[in-house]
Amino acid sequence: MTSKKFQLTNPANGRSTELAAHQGSVGPDALDISALLKDQGVFTYDPGFMATAATASAITYIDGDAGVLLYRGYPIEQLAQHSNFLEVSYLLQKGELPSSKALALFTTSISRHTMLNEWIMRLYRGFHHDAHPMAMVATIVASLAAFYHDSTDIYDDRHRVIFSHRMIAKLPTIAAAAYKHALGQPHMYPRNDLDYTGNLLQMLFAVPCESYAVDPLHAKALDLLFILHADHEQNASTSTVRLAGSTGCNPYTAMSAGVSALWGPAHGGANEAVVDMLEKIGDVSRVPEFLARVKDSKGGVRLMGFGHRVYKNFDPRATIIREMCHKVLGRLGQSDNPLFELALKLEEVALKDDYFISRKLYPNVDFYSGIIYRAVGIPRSMFTVMFAIARTAGWVAHWQEMIADPEMRIARPRQLYTGPTRRDYVPVSKR
Ligand code: CMC
Fold first, then answer.
1. Which of 45, 289, 390, 412 could form a disulfide with 229 if both were Cys (CB 3.0 to 4.6 A apart)?
2. C-beta of 235 in contact with ligand 1 (< 6 A)
3. For residue range 211-232, what is the model confidence (pLDDT) as tens digits?
4. DSSP labels for 319-375?
């Protein structure tokens, strides 16, 4: 990290501060304002982190104007075409693509950590049958802290590795158990002879009384979606994991905080909201009427799956998923899938409309992902859970990077106070 120097002079007192603008390997410089309070007595103010880099990171790079997404330097398009989710998980954590031996060892380690302590399975029984699976997943992930005491010394390299492998390995088991609980069906144990997404599919859809064959097309489609969702630099859930983790808390609880942050409809919950929206619109003939409501400033309606804080041209993940929708639906004999037709029409009309053009709103990763999840049989309530399984790869990579960073300190934002100034307490009888 090299630095350019900026001089900032406070016109009120003439005092100068020299600010370093750190240069990353690519992308905008970042002005180091950490001395501002000491030198000038002022904070910076940036609600929503519009222009604030909360950390340095070497994991993922996004160029929002050019629609570029790189994991450890590798373009998402190349990884989507040639890699698989476990290799991408390794890449995110370790920084380099694995040798075939390293990949085999990593894959074996993940498959050896897929089971859950049987006492954890009992926790599911405390949930009502209609509990949202994200609520169950957040709870069960946090509860891992109460079971796996041998991997919680965050300053021990080996513990950190075991923790990370456990997270990636157990998320599908935790997710599938939440689904089975809602159905009232027996939980299916993981099968280590299957690959990562094949195993997830059997835990979701197999039952003990019948044999189940994984559809390789379904497994491949899920694997591709998982690659695309694996990381996205300092998004809200990853930042939540980092913020919680910066306190030195048990890492499983930091991951649970990430799951909770992901659930919101502005973030990972959008895939569920998109399908809700498409079903409510119902027919291509209602697209103009729906978009009129979105554009009405008093309507409070958003075109879900559109817009992104960083992408202001196109989201490369949406482009890949749109292509994949064509392929998957075609191969499943659902080329005329009405939801997909409706989504294509919405995109076509919105992209010609000045409201969306002027605000640089384009389809994001969630606009089409729910259509594929549905096509492979994943129920809507599980869409965000699928996102959580994939993003776990990014969360553990960022958590590991943060803990190993010598600059790591507790994340403690400041505020611009706008409340009452000092006043004296008035007894209730005198109010
Ligand atoms: N539909 C209609 N108008 C929108 C939309 C949308 N989806 N997104 C942004 N706008 C408008 C917004 O009303 C505002 O207009 P104005 O300037 O007239 O007030 C302008 O565009 C800027 O919006 P913003 O809310 O200030 O932008 P943001 O960067 O804070 O929010 C976002 C980004 C993703 C939360 C937002 O675009 C959104 O709510 N999209 C819909 C939800 C969604 O699809 N989320 C998934 C994001 S990608 C996956 C992930 O991160 O997990």
1. 390
2. yes
3. 999 999 999 999 999 999 999 9
4. HHHHHHHHHHHHHTT-TT-HHHHHHHHHHHHHTTSHHHHHTT--B-HHHHHHHHHHH
